[in-house]
Design a protein that fits this description.
The complex is a heterodimer. Chain A contains 10 helices and 13 strands. By secondary structure, chain A is an alpha+beta fold. In chain B, strand 7, helix 6 and strand 8 form a beta-alpha-beta unit. In chain B, 46% of the residues are buried. The mean pLDDT of chain B is 87.
Amino acid sequence: MFLAWNEIKKNKLRFTLITGVLMLVSYLVFFLSGLATGLESLNRESVDKWEATAIILTEESDKSLPQSSMTLDELNGVDAKESAVIGQINAIAANGDQKNNVSIFGIEKDEFIMPNVTEGKEFSNTNEVIASDSLKEDGFKLGDNLQLSSTEERLTIVGFTDEARFNGAPVLYGDLSTFHRVKYGEAAELNADQINGIVVRTDGLSSITQNDALEVSEIETFIRNLPGYTEQNLTLNFMIYFLFAISSVIVAIFLYVLTVQKISMFGVMKAQGISNRYLSQSVIAQTFILAAIGVTVGFVLTLISGAFLPSAVPVSFDLATMILYGLILIIVAILGAVFSVLTIVKIDPLKAIGG
Amino acid sequence: MAILELNQVKKSFGTGHKKVEALKETNFQANKGELVAVIGPSGSGKSTFLTIAGGLQTPSSGDIIINNQNLTALNEKKRSKIRLKEIGFILQSSNLIPFLTVDMQMKLLDKVKKGNMTKEELEQLYEDLGIGDLRSKYPVDLSGGERQRAAIAKALYSNPSIILADEPTASLDSDRAYEVMELLKSETKNKNTTTIVVTHDIRLIGYCDKVYNMTDGVLTLEKEKQAVE
């Protein structure tokens, strides 16, 4: 640490440049991780809020909630600690001034997927809904009478709930009859037993249902099969992983160039009997200092930038993930220093001092 | 008592008709408290002799014994430990670390080795070398002579058994060169160490107990103390 820190103090500009590059890379990594978390939430936060174990859909729906269709009778064959029926349909909702994509969930009020109300009240009549509070940012408010794109039915917002977005759209929670009216219009009475799936909380998945036409999917599997979810996550995660590799290479190149410039100095120290171990530890310590400073500054900058972002940007910073990525960045930077360590080990003190 | 011995040491480079014998069979002994000079023209093998004696390169044959330890039988890691413990190098090119002040050069040695000079001894050394007011300066801020004196301080600071000096007065004016030789002589006598100076400056041999001459890789004892005086 002695050599490492004193060299940094003496060559501030040189090491500020390296730290700056590491800071920019970590800034990008943190931002991408925030974007990945934000987009994930956009797709799954309402499902996560259910705290469910699995969802039962028809086998032919291929784990797609809107494509699954069953009757309330299927609930009788379900063996689970808790179960909740759900109907789902997508629509465009307009309050006169604003239009927005929404996902309408038809549920039973007394079942466990009923959301908490953060503002207003629970729905108690048909065509009353509890809306995702993300709609408030788009100009929707309590009492709004919503016109829907695919039906003459109009819905009234009586309450708001938090963390209620599904597959990129804010959720409107209503009762099953509301869902049937929106989906079937005048034929609602005839389809009063129609639902899309059954959400369950239970211990084991194998014995939930014996019906071959139904398929039990773990919640995580169900989410992974949401349209575009996996592809989007893979893309962002690959970008993050590439950035890890890039930061390692950047550090490796910088430190290697610095080490090559200092070959004769290392040679002199080796001639004096200073061990490879001490010199290698010094390079590793130096890398750690640079990476830790770069990552910390990147971390702080990310949080500051995040505070000024418009709400339309789907960024959500998960501190645990950011700390994990920060540690990974420091580790890959240290791995990048290995080339320099190998170079130091190979230095022949005799050649280095010109003997 | 011999602290450094070279027994039948040879060093050659290349093979076949390209083989060059940089150091022909050499037997050498330096005792505690001796200041020894090895003089000779450029390319005569003086540096080869010094680097072999310091364990920086291995001989083609023969044994190097420092403080009863045969360096030839040891690997680089162990030789490195012996260099740190037993030898102080004063190199022709400055052996200072560019990003450390003169004081920090000594602190670095404290980090890697115990048994270095005390604060008071270091103060005295700075005074003897005339670099007391340069302790906070970086090598880049020193003149060639000042750098060389700081390098000498660094070599002496670790209280080595053997000091190997390659042209230690090369960047110094005559007065300073004599002062440095006086200092090396007093360090050698007072601390009962052994100093081997490789130089082509024959004015310095008056300070030495033994003078060897190196010509075409052959080392011969020219003079001993009585003869010089």
